[in-house]
Amino acid sequence: MKKTIYLLIIFFSITTFSQNYNSIKISNLKINGFSFNQTQNSLISILGSPNNITNYYYELEDEVWVELIYNDNSFYFENVNLIEFCLKDNSYYFQNPNIIIGGNILNLEFVFPLSFNNKRIIDNKGFIRVNITQDNNEETDMFIIINYDKITKIITSIRSSTS
After folding, report:
1. Exposure of 62 by Cβ count < 10 A (0-12 exposed, 13-18 middle, 19+ buried)?
2. Distance between CA atoms of 94 and 114, rounded to whole angstroms?
3. CA dihedral sign, ordered 142, 28, 138, 13
4. Which residues have a Cβ under 8 Å from the Cβ of 11 and sit 6 or more positions away?
5. Are 102 and 153 in contact (CB under 8 A)?
6. What is the pLDDT of residues 97-128, one digit of tens each?
7. How far is it, in rounded angstroms, from Cα 128 to Cα 141?
8. b vs e for 43-57, b when ≥16 Cβ sit within 10 Å of the residue's Cβ?
9. For residues 113-125, b (16+ Cβ closer than 10 Å) or e, as one string?
């Protein structure tokens, strides 16, 4: 009986947490038209040679990822698969809907209303979270963070992450 109650509490906590944010299907997650399921070689064939390739130590998982750097933008690969990205200039933009560095965060109010209503501000930096789901709507541990300046409401970076 106790196990069932604990499982129900966990289920309701996850459901409540998920309902606080909008989500986007992983197949709809596109950057400059290319999909999130790129390999390191396919991304290089699309974008050309990066400015730099480094090994990035991901402390949380105690793993080393390959980081492809294009100007101020980074694409992280675990083995050969794209696992995360961080966009910091407007040469790359997040699609579906179009979200670009330098755009106004108020444009997201109607696109991601739950996420917009649950935005957070820390040290004049704003954050909006959008969950990423599988194509069958199954939840993942991945999400998008859209950072913006609290005063100007201008988007300063877009990154993916895992919880």
Report:
1. exposed
2. 19
3. positive
4. none
5. no
6. 788 999 999 999 999 999 999 999 988 899 99
7. 16
8. bbeebeebeeeeebe
9. eebbeebeeeeee
